[in-house]
């Protein structure tokens, strides 16, 4: 049975999950707050991107006391190792712990040995638990918590806490994914219109950011290019559309859009 303080912690975490502005901040604040009611030594919270063929790519990982190279090793294991894929392959939101996943007979199998040598031992991990997050059989992300041999296994109470938080996390990630899809659709439509005006895909991307009033520095940072390259693209855009300033560029695009309506 959960204690009053554990229920209070669950309520606070639920509010944090839904009330934090960005996913990145939510990942960080969630793990930091979760540690108060479900202690752990190391942790990772990452998002999934599933490529053609079912390959899972870890995205935007937020880690506590985790070596980035070891996180990459986990990314390889979830695509190749039967034990690591056991929960993920169910493609549903669920909480789990390692002691429930592996039977005594499996302790000496190659899959368990591989996980132990390539992931658990380098991180000094003895116990782990986590939450797989999914929506309509689409994998969204995973939270993984690790404990060393200086700590005990995760208790039934702690697993109940994770179980009560799992749906809140899945709802937040599902909402974020849908919002991103809408934004991407709008972005694709806008850039396709700019391409129809005679711009290249990269020029269309930059012109779209100009319409959002990004500065040259902002555009360069957003696209991870130098300011020199950004200015060069802007020069080409101005020449193609017969304008000489950002204001004229924005007006030319609006005029073209109105004519297409």
UniProtKB/TrEMBL annotation:
Signal peptide: none annotated. Keywords: DNA-binding, Transcription, Transcription regulation. Residues 191-256 form the HTH luxR-type domain. InterPro entries: GAF, GAF-like_dom_sf, Sig_transdc_resp-reg_C-effctor, Tscrpt_reg_LuxR_C, WH-like_DNA-bd_sf. The keyword Membrane does not apply. One of its GO terms (molecular function) is DNA binding. One of its GO terms (biological process) is regulation of DNA-templated transcription. It comes from the Bacteria. This is HTH luxR-type domain-containing protein.
